[in-house]
């Protein structure tokens, strides 16, 4: 989970999140290079001595500064596309978890494991124990094995919710009347915290998710 002064991404707990962080850093590096170049160019305009006042066209330079940015964009687009399809790959899941969004709590079903069903509510601040995390802990945690492929099915009973766990790189909308699917692989033990991330009503901020792995 995020703690004080953690402004970047959380440490990954799954191979997909690791790839997402690599892609983020890659895109950021390209962004910094473009910003520095354009910033330098704009700064240098202050010292322009107008030697090219009567220049009306330059086919070659137009060609270069059209094609070059297009090639740079390809270096972002292709890895992005690779990740997009990688995130959708389902690889023989050993457990399936179904999570249903409600106003304002999540309910879970382990449909292929003893048919376990339970609701998961946030623990209110006045009932929180001293080692609990305010607005983030729940009364019934999801328990999932590490080092195994896990499929999750997300839907909602009333309005649109979103099942989001940053450390696992998972963010799936739960939409009434639809069943969305994604998967993840937890590669270290721990508690992984998440929150709903679709504005779903007055208590949207108070329907957290906790995975115990
Ligand atoms: Cu459910 Cu926001």
TrEMBL record:
<keyword id="KW-0249">Electron transport</keyword>
<dbReference type="InterPro" id="IPR011759">
    <property type="entry name" value="Cyt_c_oxidase_su2_TM_dom"/>
</dbReference>
<keyword id="KW-0472">Membrane</keyword>
<keyword id="KW-1278">Translocase</keyword>
<dbReference type="InterPro" id="IPR036257">
    <property type="entry name" value="Cyt_c_oxidase_su2_TM_sf"/>
</dbReference>
<dbReference type="InterPro" id="IPR002429">
    <property type="entry name" value="CcO_II-like_C"/>
</dbReference>
<comment type="function">
    <text>Component of the cytochrome c oxidase, the last enzyme in the mitochondrial electron transport chain which drives oxidative phosphorylation. The respiratory chain contains 3 multisubunit complexes succinate dehydrogenase (complex II, CII), ubiquinol-cytochrome c oxidoreductase (cytochrome b-c1 complex, complex III, CIII) and cytochrome c oxidase (complex IV, CIV), that cooperate to transfer electrons derived from NADH and succinate to molecular oxygen, creating an electrochemical gradient over the inner membrane that drives transmembrane transport and the ATP synthase.</text>
</comment>
<keyword id="KW-0460">Magnesium</keyword>
<dbReference type="Pfam" id="PF02790">
    <property type="entry name" value="COX2_TM"/>
</dbReference>
<dbReference type="GO" id="GO:0005507">
    <property type="term" value="F:copper ion binding"/>
</dbReference>
<comment type="similarity">
    <text>Belongs to the cytochrome c oxidase subunit 2 family.</text>
</comment>
<keyword id="KW-0812">Transmembrane</keyword>
<keyword id="KW-0496">Mitochondrion</keyword>
<dbReference type="InterPro" id="IPR034210">
    <property type="entry name" value="CcO_II_C"/>
</dbReference>
<dbReference type="InterPro" id="IPR001505">
    <property type="entry name" value="Copper_CuA"/>
</dbReference>
<dbReference type="GO" id="GO:0004129">
    <property type="term" value="F:cytochrome-c oxidase activity"/>
</dbReference>
<feature type="transmembrane region" description="Helical">
    <location>
        <begin position="63"/>
        <end position="87"/>
    </location>
</feature>
<keyword id="KW-1133">Transmembrane helix</keyword>
<feature type="transmembrane region" description="Helical">
    <location>
        <begin position="27"/>
        <end position="51"/>
    </location>
</feature>
<keyword id="KW-0999">Mitochondrion inner membrane</keyword>
<keyword id="KW-0813">Transport</keyword>
<dbReference type="GO" id="GO:0016491">
    <property type="term" value="F:oxidoreductase activity"/>
</dbReference>
<keyword id="KW-0186">Copper</keyword>
<keyword id="KW-0679">Respiratory chain</keyword>
<protein>
    <recommendedName>
        <fullName>Cytochrome c oxidase subunit 2</fullName>
    </recommendedName>
</protein>
<comment type="subunit">
    <text>Component of the cytochrome c oxidase (complex IV, CIV), a multisubunit enzyme composed of a catalytic core of 3 subunits and several supernumerary subunits. The complex exists as a monomer or a dimer and forms supercomplexes (SCs) in the inner mitochondrial membrane with ubiquinol-cytochrome c oxidoreductase (cytochrome b-c1 complex, complex III, CIII).</text>
</comment>
<feature type="domain" description="Cytochrome oxidase subunit II transmembrane region profile">
    <location>
        <begin position="1"/>
        <end position="91"/>
    </location>
</feature>
<dbReference type="GO" id="GO:0042773">
    <property type="term" value="P:ATP synthesis coupled electron transport"/>
</dbReference>
<dbReference type="InterPro" id="IPR014222">
    <property type="entry name" value="Cyt_c_oxidase_su2"/>
</dbReference>
<dbReference type="GO" id="GO:0005743">
    <property type="term" value="C:mitochondrial inner membrane"/>
</dbReference>
<keyword id="KW-0479">Metal-binding</keyword>
<dbReference type="InterPro" id="IPR008972">
    <property type="entry name" value="Cupredoxin"/>
</dbReference>
<dbReference type="InterPro" id="IPR045187">
    <property type="entry name" value="CcO_II"/>
</dbReference>
<feature type="domain" description="Cytochrome oxidase subunit II copper A binding">
    <location>
        <begin position="92"/>
        <end position="213"/>
    </location>
</feature>
<dbReference type="Pfam" id="PF00116">
    <property type="entry name" value="COX2"/>
</dbReference>
